[in-house]
Amino acid sequence: MAGSNFVDYVKIFARSGHGGGGSTHFRREKFVAFGGPDGGDGGKGGSIILQGDKQYWTLIHLKYQRHQFAEDGEHGSGARSSGKDAKDIIIPVPLGTVANRIYENEDGTTTTETVGEVTADGERLVLLKGGRGGLGNWHFKSATNQTPRYAQPGEEGEEGTFILELKVLADVGLVGFPNAGKSTLLSVVSAAKPKIANYAFTTLEPNLGIVEVRDHKSFVMADIPGIIEGAHEGRGLGTRFLRHIERNSVLLFMIPADSDDIRRDYEVLLGELTQYNPELLDKERLLAVTKCDMLDDDLIAEMRGHLPEGIPSVFISSVSGLNIQQLKDMLWEALQR
């Protein structure tokens, strides 16, 4: 994937700002011999925050900005003047970004903990909070201590290493072996222009397209790179793109009509998804038998008896347009369920 602009995995190191210290200042003016404490509070340190931005579709902007450091808050001063709060670092990320924090254990191993995910435009996720500013000495004046000579120091910021993963947000995800016709279908039902060629792994990154159905209704379809047997163990493009399927509401399995055994191919695909994440079994599933432009009605009727049971299916051809509208209607109905 050298030269690709699609980056869906990046590791960053971030540090939030320290809070400013409170002031121990005393009021000193002409004709006021013993002015009381008037030290101001310190300002808050800057936080590190992710913010969803629908204009972004990749994490490439963070590939060369892997260190994110926020500034410290200013210290307080006399006349109860508070220090200035530091600016937060706002990192725009595409919708579907998951943040995981890495912790190093004493035995040298690492533990990963999910901080949260950003799925809506404008949604914010705080990775690291900035330190709070310390209180000035005027807060500590009392009947028994009229001249407190101490103030709170600012709270220290935090630092940590994070892995940001993008899981493409789409309504329908296309699942199939390489060269099953997924990119061709996406190019026919939407305005997307994925690379199409007659060899395996033409698609090396997810492609999204908006599919118009009827009455100005539409949904988003994602063309995921082809899956091969053993993908859940990292074979082929492996788990690098299997995670994008997790966010799809409906999975459209695509198997070409010239397959030696459509039922077995479906079971292999389903098995790879299940071993990667068993929760994928809870999603709506449909089957499209592709490249059917050369089949007659009798042959299609005969092939129906060899399809997997319990899953709605349709025979299509992206080249001739066979049953494409029916497929879109079926997908829309599945999305409503």
From TrEMBL:
Subcellular location field: Cytoplasm
EC id: 3.6.5.-
Residue sites binding Mg(2+) per the record: 183, 203
Annotated OBG-type G domain residues: 170-336
Transmembrane annotation, as ranges: none
Cleavable signal peptide: none
Obg domain location: 4-169
InterPro entries: G_OBG, GTP-bd, GTP-bd_Obg/CgtA, GTP1-OBG_CS, GTP1_OBG_dom, GTP1_OBG_dom_sf, OBG_GTPase, P-loop_NTPase
Binding site for GTP: 176-183, 201-205, 223-226, 290-293, 317-319
Predominant location: cytoplasm
Names of required cofactors: Mg(2+)
UniProt entry keywords in alphabetical sequence: Cytoplasm, GTP-binding, Hydrolase, Magnesium, Metal-binding, Nucleotide-binding
Family: Belongs to the TRAFAC class OBG-HflX-like GTPase superfamily. OBG GTPase family.
NCBIfam families: Obg_CgtA, PRK12297.1, PRK12299.1
Stated role: An essential GTPase which binds GTP, GDP and possibly (p)ppGpp with moderate affinity, with high nucleotide exchange rates and a fairly low GTP hydrolysis rate. Plays a role in control of the cell cycle, stress response, ribosome biogenesis and in those bacteria that undergo differentiation, in morphogenesis control.
PANTHER family: DEVELOPMENTALLY REGULATED GTP-BINDING PROTEIN-RELATED (PTHR11702), MITOCHONDRIAL RIBOSOME-ASSOCIATED GTPASE 2 (PTHR11702:SF31)
Subunit structure: Monomer.
Protein name (record): GTPase Obg
Lineage: Bacteria, Pseudomonadati, Bacteroidota, Bacteroidia, Bacteroidales
